Amino acid sequence: MATLSFRNVTKTYPGDIAVIHGFSIDITDGEFVVIVGPSGCGKSTLMRMVAGLESVTSGDIAIGGRTVNELEPAERDIAMVFQNYALYPHMSVFENMAYGLKIRKLNKQQIRLRVEQAAQILELEHLLNRRPRQLSGGQRQRVAMGRAIVREPKVFLFDEPLSNLDAKLRVQMRLEIQRLHHRLKTTSLYVTHDQVEAMTLAQRMVVMNQGVAEQIGTPAEVFEQPATVFVASFIGSPPMNLLPVIINEAGQVIGEKNLALQIPTEQIPTHTNQRKLILGLRPEHMLLHAPGVPIEIEMVEILGSEQLVHGRHGDTPLVLRCATRLTREFPLQVGETIQVGCDVTHPIHWFDAQSGQRIVP
To answer: Chain-centre distance of CA 42, in angstroms?
Structure first.
């Protein structure tokens, strides 16, 4: 096991196309860090630079305190789990897991011992003689993880390993990855576009946007105190509602199309009179049929005991999460205009409309 450090790392492709802008983080020994962001944000490029599949334009990447910028992939002592499994179809499960060890010229006894230990951890003992085509998607992904485990690397790299699995299997595999990390305690870097995966797996997470780390923190920190409008709009399912408002001289929160929210003075940021702000409200912190924001209902999703009410205030989309029982007697109708408010017992989020940065009341 080892630490993994990025020190002001940049990546620029020919044509002066910059994709990573001064990325820095220190990942401690045994830590599980998830890089999350939309397609094209640079997360896979960072992963490939650690693996040695992409060069570093400037800055340093260090594994165990040793700079690896110029080292070949085989010299970095990392193991990578890919999205597409990358198993050899003509080899058995045992042979797939053992292949990397054979290349490293370990003796047969060592190879068998490591493969059997990894198979036991991943509950693959009864599948060792099967070929990949005889396995389910989840079993193939476990074989790919087993192939990484047997190498006993300093760092695990996971490149969107669950993207090809169905929803139920992804939940199961997330649990297995958590168990695996708890047992092995190997430093791990995990890349995904799925913020639910990031929230459930990470000890710390990095939210990337256009090559910049918008926020680094624990899942709780990122969810409860998003640093920017982008983080607020990306993290959360459904994401945070963002309303353009101003605070008038009387300290009232007002906006377009009759928006007027009653918010306690202590929750309103000071020195922001007549300044354009973005007000952030989580869907679960909004109240149905409360004064504040008129919305036109566009869709209602029934999710069992709760429902999501999708609406629009002017050009701004809004989502409200509430108990299904609240509308059982009088169901909401698409096209209907209702009033929704905010539950001031929960935190209210403020962002500067120009910079997008968080403002603390």
So the answer is: 13
Work out the number of other CB atoms within 10 angstroms of the CB of residue 353: 15
CATH 3.40.50.1580 for domain 4-227? no
| Mean pLDDT for the stretch of residues 333-357 | 92
pLDDT in the model for residue 34: 97
Q: What is the amino acid identity at position 220?
A: A
Is residue 296 a contact partner of residue 257, using CB atoms and an 8 Å limit? no
Report the distance separating Cα 181 and Cα 156, nearest Å: 10
Residue 71 has pLDDT above 70, yes or no: yes
φ and ψ at residue 290, rounded to 5 degrees: -125, 145
For the segment 330-348, the average pLDDT, to the nearest whole number, is: 90
For the stretch 114-152, pLDDT in tens is 999 889 888 899 999 999 999 988 888 889 888 888 988
What is the domain partition of the chain in residue ranges? 4-227, 238-359
Contact of 6 with 46, CB cutoff 8 Å: yes
Q: Which long-range contacts (CB under 8 A, 24 or more apart) does 118-121 make?
A: 118/146, 118/149, 118/150, 119/93, 119/94, 119/146, 121/146, 121/149, 121/180, 121/183, 121/184
132 is written with which tokens?
A: 């990949």
Question: How many whole angstroms separate alpha carbon 229 and alpha carbon 318?
Answer: 15
**Is the overall model pTM greater than 0.85, yes or no?**
yes
The vertex-132 CA angle with 172 and 162, nearest 5°, equals 30
Q: Is the pLDDT of residue 346 over 80?
A: yes
CATH of 238-359, one of 1.10.10.60, 3.30.70.2750, 2.40.50.140, 1.20.1640.10: 2.40.50.140
Q: What is the DSSP letter of 357?
A: B
pLDDT band for position 1 (cuts 50, 70, 90): low
